[in-house]
Amino acid sequence: MTINDNTPLFPPTWQPLLEQGRLERQHIGRSDADVFRLRRHAGDLFLKSERADAFSELPAEVEKLKWMRRQGLAVPEVVEFTRHAGHHWLLMSALPGRDLASEPTLPPERVVAIMAQALRRLHALPYRGCPFDQRLSVLIPQAQRHLQAGLVDESDFDASRLGKSAAELFATLLAERPAPETEDWVVTHGDPCLPNLMADGDRFSGFIDCGRLGCADRYQDLALASRSIGYNLGSDWVAPFFRAYGIVPDEARLEYYRLLDEFF
Question: Which CATH architecture does the domain made up of 98-261 adopt?
Answer without folding.
Answer: Alpha-Beta Complex (3.90)
